[in-house]
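step=encode ok
step=design start
structure_in=
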């Protein structure tokens, strides 16, 4: 297969997204600026304004995503005046009204979150990864993210009870059942919707980078080689690098020139063919932020 095409673009995604083709993207993975939180680095959005700010962007994302595609939104509501603000919950409802299906919610458990003491809460060690789709039938390659069965299974599967050998219907009458014996002899199982991953901001010169394993996991789950991945808030370019390593094509957008330059340099290190980058920059004239 030919080298993946990786296109970092400089500009405001509210404008740049309009230049992308409709129904052209297989997966969007992104972590937008958090409400007001990073005011000193790249300008925050007031929590009360967050939904109104995001909806025109999600409308464009809906336009560029293929009907079989998936949108993964990494977000976490901040604490305002002692309580969790509700903008994420409001955003989910507003995006459903916009036509999105809120298919699933994954949790990113940040294994190495800072110890600390707060008067009325414990340290925050998780973020949401909201999954939105345009339709119920979307591409999903579950085998690509299977995990080793683990030691517990060896013990559990060694001495199967009679119930384990038949389908054990839920006692609560939920309609769910399981047949434990189905897993005998298997090396791998499907993962849960909780991703245990450490943050790694130190080497990245970006205050809010997510670990490369995070976009990589969703890229494997929702795309195949040669598909197109988009990150409209690319930051240090984590999604683009993950896509390149997994041989997917990718487009990333950032409003900050420093991040854009940084991403280009980091892609050079990965030996992305420069031709594709420069061709794209000539074709696209981004309006620069004031
Ligand atoms: C949370 S960071 C993304 C970090 C990224 N996931 C990474 O791993 O480095 C959000 C990024 O969005 C960019 N940004 C903020 N407003 C933007 C806009 N309107 N259009 C494009 N990028 C924007 C910021 O410059 C910042 O780099």
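sequence_out=
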């Amino acid at each position: 297969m030919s080298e993946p095409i990786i296109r970092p673009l400089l500009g405001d995604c509210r404008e740049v997204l309009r230049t992308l083709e409709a129904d052209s993207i297989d997966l969007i993975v992104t972590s937008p600026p958090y409400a007001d939180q990073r005011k000193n680095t790249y300008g925050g959005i007031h929590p009360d304004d967050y939904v109104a700010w995001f909806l025109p962007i999600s409308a464009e994302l809906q336009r560029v995503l293929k009907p079989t595609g998936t949108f993964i939104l990494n977000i976490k509501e901040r604490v305002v005046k002692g309580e969790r603000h509700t903008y994420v919950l409001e955003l989910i409802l507003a995006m459903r009204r916009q036509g999105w299906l809120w298919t699933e919610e994954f949790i990113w458990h940040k294994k190495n979150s800072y110890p600390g003491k707060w008067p009325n809460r414990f340290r925050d060690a998780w973020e949401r990864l909201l999954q939105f789709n345009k339709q119920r039938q979307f591409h999903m390659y579950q085998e690509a993210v299977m995990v080793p069965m683990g030691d517990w299974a060896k013990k559990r599967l060694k001495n199967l009870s009679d119930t384990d050998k038949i389908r054990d219907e839920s006692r609560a009458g939920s309609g769910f059942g399981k047949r434990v014996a189905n897993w005998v002899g298997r090396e791998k199982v499907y993962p849960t919707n909780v991703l245990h991953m450490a943050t790694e901001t130190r080497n990245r010169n970006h205050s809010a980078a997510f670990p490369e394993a995070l976009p990589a996991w969703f890229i494997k789950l929702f795309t195949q080689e040669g598909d197109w991945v988009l990150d409209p808030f690319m930051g240090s370019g984590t999604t683009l690098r993950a896509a390149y390593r997994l041989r997917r094509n990718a487009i990333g957008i950032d409003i900050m020139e420093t991040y854009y330059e940084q991403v280009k340099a980091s892609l050079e290190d990965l030996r992305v063919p420069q031709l594709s980058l420069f061709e794209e920059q000539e074709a696209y004239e981004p309006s620069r932020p004031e």
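step=design ok
step=annotate ok -> The chain has a mean pLDDT of 86.
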